[in-house]
Amino acid sequence: MSEELKSQAAAPQAAAKPAAPRAAVAKPAAPAKPAVNELKPTVVEPAALRAELVRLHDKEGMDFLLNLTGEDWMEEGLGVVYQLENTTNGKQACVKSVCPDRENPMLPSACDLWDIAHTYEREVYDFYGIIFTNHPDMRRLFMREDWVGYPFRKDDATEENNPLRMTNEPLSDFTTEYSLHEDGTVEKVQHRVWDKDDYVVNIGPQHPSTHGVLHFRVALEGERIRKIDPHLGYIHRGVEKISEQMTYPQTLALTDRLDYLGAMQNRHALCMCIEQAMGVEVSDRVQVIRTIMDELQRIDSHILFFSCLCQDLGATTAFLYGFRDREKILDIFEETCGGRLILNYNTIGGVMADIHPNFVKRVKEFIPYMRKNIQEYHDIFTGNVIFQNRSKGVGVLTKEQVISFGCTGGTGRASGWHNDLRKLRPYAAYDRVQFNEVVRTEGDSFARYMIRLDEILESLNIIEQLIDNIPEGNFQEKMKPIIKLPVGTFYSEVEGSRGRFGVLIESKGDKSPYRLHYRSTGLPLVAVMDTVCRGNMLADLITIGGTVDYVVPDVDR
Amino acid sequence: MFDFSIITTWLHDFLMGTCGFAEWGAILTESVLVALAIITLYAVFAIALIYMERKVCAFFQCRLGPMRVGKWGLLQVFSDVFKMLTKEIISMRQSDLFLHNLAPFLVVTASMVTFSCLPWNKGAHIIDFNVGVFFFLAISSIGVVGILLAGWSSNNKYSLIGAMRSGAQIISYELSIGMTMLAMICLTGSMSFSEICQDQYVNGWNIVRGHVPAVIAFLIYLVAGNAECNRGPFDLPECESELTAGYHTEYSGMHFGYYYLAEYLNLFICAGMASTIFLGGWAPLHIYGLDGFNGVMDMIPGALWFLGKTFFVVFLLMWLRWTFPRLRIDQILSLEWKYLVPFSMVNLVLMALCVAMGWHF
Amino acid sequence: MEEKSYLGGIADGLKSLTTGLKTTMREFFTPKITEQYPENRATNVMFDRFRGSLTMPHNEQNEHQCVGCGLCQMACPNDTIKVTSEFYETADGKKKKRLVKYEYDLGSCMFCQLCTRACPHGAITFDQSYENAVFDRSKLKKVLNHEGSKCVKE
User: Fold this and answer.
1) Domain A45-151 has CATH 3.30.460.80
2) Distance from the A491 Cα atom to the nearest Cα atom in chain C, whole angstroms
3) ipTM of predicted assembly, 2 dp
4) How many angstroms separate the CA of residue C137 from the nearest CA in chain B?
5) What is the DSSP letter of C122?
6) Class of the A239-549 domain?
7) Which chains touch A (3 or more CB pairs under 8 A)?
8) d(CA C132, CA C138)
9) What span, in angstroms and rounded, lies between the C-alpha atoms of A169 and A167?
10) Per-residue pLDDT tens over the stretch B183-228
11) C120 to chain A: nearest residue by CA?
């Protein structure tokens, strides 16, 4: 909403209630106790950052780069926040580094420590213009290559610099590396993406099996894949940037549009982050409802995963069986939430509306129905010798690789990484239910596929345990009309349909976030595609892409 | 059993005698009539098959299929064909225009000529001579030239990969088709389709007469024939999820329509051959010893028998297509070279043994 | 993956294929799930919480609940709502505000329900209409208060 309109709208209201007690609320509300999800990053000088990251990686065993957020602190400068985790003992670390030089900000790259840093640093470069030295591929990640300026900087004249361009988007065959020498000088080095005689095939941006507008440039040797260069950003909407102009309740409306198969969980994460930062406790009823909804959403997502994989592999009939069953979940959602894909259900302090009177009945009908139909999936597709041969041993990821790439969710668990947040750090009502974390060790496409089908059964178990015991209580806590967060950095995460979905909010005490960053579940999954596909066949790209299960709006945000 | 040659002989005599045509004139007129009949039948069967495919596929998938145009969507295919006829044929820059335009005609010609090899009824064959099976195999492989040309001339990477896959696949599977046919020729002792059918009319259907080796040959033929038609689960030349539309990515309008027609007619031809060689073609169902029953069966015209059997095989092929996921190129080749070829070779030996020792019915 | 013997592999493969064939054949005869949409218009009832488009319910006297406060307009993240209001003098000389025009653009609405939640009087709600397609974008711009309507509280 433009400033002009806002003042217009505010004017009659102020006139109507001249002595409105709004001013009292306007002060940043001090939480009763320190927020449980506040991040307290260690501030490290850019010069010492590299040594500190190496120490954390080597000495402290921080082998998982959970999240990397670029930020603009105006006069202080531009910087990044690293969130690291030790996957063995669960310890976490948070490091912040600020570059005071706004003209030519430079930080050392960490892409040799964590593979995923390669992609995350490109994102930060794209949004904030921070150059990571010794990063071999300093291209933009989401924006066009001829984009002017860095859109997430607070002083960027985005609209003036970037009129609607009527030219085709350039796509460079070169990458730039800013290599840092011993004496502190920086040299610009160019690398070729493709060799002269590479046979490069475009898979996407409009392609039946990229599950959205995603563009892979694939170098082939006969049918074998030599290299993949993913090109992202076709559905980049700048959700994080838009959120900076919105009030907290308004930001909620955008989360359903990130990973549309994790709408419940995404919004759950954002609501949880805001609630914990404000120190609001939601009722037990809400916790249980949110848990059930998250699990229904997970089943929905996994059924769609099954369907789309079948479709990609040419088993069109199995595809429609999946959709037939997904319809039942969507009906359940629609009856309670009023939407099928864009659910709009969680709110700050509760849920939009109490569950529908039919909800329990429908869910109880659905559980045995789905258990029966899972068997049908196994009959028609899982056991099929063609599928088995196409997926077993195809696209193997080791445990080290998935951790280094930060591939959480089913993809990580298929390679033996116990990363289920519902078990590691139970939230909502997950501490009161019994369920198994489905983990396999093969790390191939078949394992990734089986993980999802088994998780459907586990989710059904969770729902079955909760559905009869939904406690009484408010479905919505009383909230102040204007929601403000205390000053600080807050981070909450949930186990989304395809991995750990996190929300990082930096608040200056206003009614809108200073910086809102989503830890996308899909970005690591796309980043790993090059590694996992190399040496496999073109047809395997489809199998692997289907089984790692990324959703493009979540990748691009 | 009604012999269709009565009609053809009568027509010939009519043209020669009553109309006073010379021999060449009569044959020319007959050829034109036959060609018209083939083209009409070709179009009619394509439409029937497309409708059947859409309905059968829908029923496997818990759907209803086309329901909107006409009662039960009966006119859907007609409107689709009409739509395709009205579409512009787009020619690509930097593609080899001559080859690009030639390719669909090669494909459709090959399938039309093979279509005319089918024996419709006793005495109703269009192309029938003593090495008919050879002719059938030879002509049907012209189609692959069209596909390769389409892939090459489109100047598109998807098309090229699709065409190459198609080439590898069709040439491989022709081997097992030939081998299974050889096994059946072994049993009937003739390469002419009319004699194969006549033999089955007298001695019983091949699949019964040749028992085990014939059933194995039938199954191998179904798989290989399916692959030959580029249909799922062997549809990877045009496999949608990798290559968008494979070799016909760049075709539009009726040029695409030709590929579409040829695909369905190849399915019909493949099923028609299966019914000719294994299921007796136009030969009615006879049960040894039940003369009354056999008499009743003889009342049903041969063409109906042929079509009934053919559509049954078509249904089997559709059932396969709509159940299985697509194979990968290396799986396709290993299925052929590691499984089907050795099996059909062993099967051929087995059949030869059966025939030599008189172990058949 | 354990290596199977050549023939064992074939047997297993064939078994898995027949299982698949059996499944599809069973489904061939099950009732179909297609809903024939324009034909079932009369019976197709949406769920009561379905969010079709924003409406302002009016009673028989052509009265609505809206007082023109503009809270919904403030809450909207997309500038979908434009409330025009004016002041008038009541019989006892007080100045009060009333709604003149309530404009709503369905084309930019994202159905987030912030407006309905913000409204203190329950004046606006989402209805169950789902056939919202039009040929011209300007037709998506609607005025929600009826001609000559007024607030119940006036």
Assistant:
1) yes
2) 24
3) 0.83
4) 28
5) -
6) mainly alpha
7) B, C
8) 13
9) 6
10) 888 888 888 888 888 888 777 787 777 778 888 888 889 888 888 8
11) A481
